[in-house]
Amino acid sequence: MSATAETSTPAPPRGLFDAAGLRAIETAAAAELGDSYALMRRAGEAAWRELLNHWTRAFHLLVVCGPGNNGGDGYVLATHALLSGRQATVVRLRDHAPRGELAQRAAAAYAAAGGSTLEFDGELPKADVIVDALFGIGLSRAPDAAATALIEAVNAHAAPVLALDVPSGVDADRGFAYPSAILAQRTLEFIAPKAGLVTGAALDHAGVLALTSLDLPQTLYHTPPVAELLRAEDLPRWLRPRRRDSHKGRNGRVLCIGGDHGHGGALLLCAQAALRSGAGLLDAATRPAHVAPMLARLPEAMPRAIEHADELHDAIDSASVIAIGPGLGQESWGKQLFERAIASAKPLLLDADALNLLAIDPRPLPADCILTPHPGEAARLLGSDSARVQADRFAAVRALVERYRCVVVLKGAGTLVAAHGRGVQVIGAGNPGMAVGGMGDVLSGVIAALRAQGLDAFDAACAGALLHSVAGDEAAREGGERGLLPSDLMPWLRRRANPVNGAR
User: Fold this and answer.
1) Helix 375-382 crosses helix 353-360 at what angle (to 10 degrees)?
2) Which of 80, 314, 348, 378 has the most Cβ atoms closer than 10 angstroms to its Cβ?
3) How far apart are CA 350 and CA 250, in angstroms?
4) Euclidean distance between CA atoms 480 and 211, whole angstroms
5) Using CA atoms, how far apart are residues 309 and 307, in angstroms rounded to an integer?
6) pLDDT (tens digit, 9 = 90+) per residue, 18-39?
7) pLDDT band at 139 (very low <50, low <70, confident <90, very high)
């Protein structure tokens, strides 16, 4: 799943920043403007415009302000609301009086405009819109009991919520949400996009993402971003039109290995996805019982009945890339095929039970190997647990790269792609309907096909994860998220793998 990104003003493209990077930009901006308060005034005014654009008839506003600069932004917004003739009331906790000079100036201007302030007593008055200006990017620990009560009251309120910069209770760097965190309908980010708002639990709290650069010049963005967001429009970067004299051999030969007894469908989905993503030839090594069903469903594939790893020799020898894991199992049959594939010196993609076998017996992997774990598999590969992986998905994907020294695709809401010496990429597409068995098998086929067509491992992983998510979004738009099946992606893989003549 991905939050929708909108741009209120021209903004830095794609780059995702952490709190340290944003503070460096803010410091440079304050020096450029000669007045730090000018930046706060811009932020509050931009937030006021955002509110007006989306809740034009809102008259009664509650602005929940914290003691820091995020609260100061809220005071500026509330002042604009008062001056426009609306009713705006600041709500704060008893110990959340403005502490810094900038927030104090903003609060004083609000009071001078006739603004009133309520100390939260457990209940919130009626309102048309609530503005969350409680914590911003400064949150580094779980909200205390008083803040938790205020956040839960906001979430229980009937009014929609506009969060300023970051929904309170969400970690702007990690995408982690504390047990009590604001559920916003919209979040207006200031200056630059936050890495932590486009992956993991944050996606359920941020709502629709919008961005205002506060009219800062690009020359102030000295700090490099910590990650890059990939969107559907990036697909042509990798998926270029084919040459007129193309032939099947030029488009690569994928070998899919898996499908132990009772799991033939996983390998079928992988094989079909590889063909729909442009593989020229497709071999499928599986149990003999699955050969006939695969031929009936996918006559374009070349299934091979395999009972022992020695029977893989010819298929491995002719393969451009091997995708192993879908339906592989962890019994003796799967183990021997896994060992044979690992020893092949061919470009590899490991998924599903291939990852579980690797976790049981870790070993060095070629740098161009691709791992595609979901959080549970990632936890096993790291000797951790899925809660820790989800608590900091960026740290987890970097730890996987460091441990296995290859390309890693950490699946989930806001899929991450990383490799040694390459920046982390976040897939800005996908939806909750894709949370169903078999979607990972499709992803494996897509990435393997793009790898076989000549992309290097990192680019194949990025393009494949993006294509897979975009196809999932198209399929969901067509028929809805609930009940979405992996096989529903197949026609959209073909269409979106041809962006010149297939994009909408």
Assistant:
1) 20
2) 378
3) 23
4) 28
5) 7
6) 999 999 999 999 999 888 899 9
7) confident
